[in-house]
């Protein structure tokens, strides 16, 4: 009987402590009122990537090129598409200026940004679907940006298509059937 009573008390205590309202964790900025270098860098990187996507959507090749580092590495979705800035920007401008190309509309659904401790480099991962090119298979853009002379610039990017595992299986069957 004493054992049963002890178990009931433990269950009761566990349920009471589990019902406590837990406050969400606060960021450094929320608790101190001061933005850290990482907080500031993250905002700047978000603005950089938003500008990048707007240049693509609005088909502005020059705006696009100005966001890229002259010594950077830039990769398209095809395994052969590995470029320096000038060649990449030239190919993109040509593609964007194609009059048969429709509207490039998409919304970045997922964006993860990792800033280094000094707030001067960032790794960015974004995912979205572009109906014009692949309405069912998301694109993933992995980028790296650095802050040079007070300005953020992209020194690496790689576009990939990321089918689900089920889509990948179907794609392999179609390819192998040929």
From TrEMBL:
One family name in Pfam for this protein: SnoaL_3
Superkingdom of source: Bacteria
InterPro entries: NTF2-like_dom_sf, SnoaL-like
Protein name per UniProt: Nuclear transport factor 2 family protein
SnoaL-like domain residues: 45-154
Chain segments annotated as transmembrane: none
């Amino acid at each position: 009987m004493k054992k049963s009573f002890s178990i009931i008390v433990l269950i009761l205590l566990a349920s009471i402590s589990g019902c406590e309202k837990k406050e969400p964790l606060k960021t450094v900025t929320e608790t101190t009122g001061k933005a850290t270098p990482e907080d500031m860098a993250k905002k700047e990187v978000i603005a950089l990537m938003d500008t990048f996507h707007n240049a693509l959507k609005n088909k502005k090749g020059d705006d696009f090129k100005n966001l890229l580092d002259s010594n950077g590495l830039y990769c398209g979705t095809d395994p052969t598409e590995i470029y320096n800035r000038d060649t990449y920007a030239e190919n993109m401008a040509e593609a964007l200026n194609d009059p048969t190309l429709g509207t490039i509309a998409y919304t970045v659904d997922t964006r993860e940004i990792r800033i280094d401790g000094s707030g001067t480099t960032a790794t960015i991962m974004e995912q979205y679907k572009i109906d014009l090119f692949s309405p069912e298979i998301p694109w993933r853009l992995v980028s790296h940006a650095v802050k040079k002379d007070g300005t953020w610039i992209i020194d690496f990017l790689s576009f990939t298509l990321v089918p689900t595992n089920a889509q990948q299986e179907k794609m392999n069957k179609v390819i192998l059937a040929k």
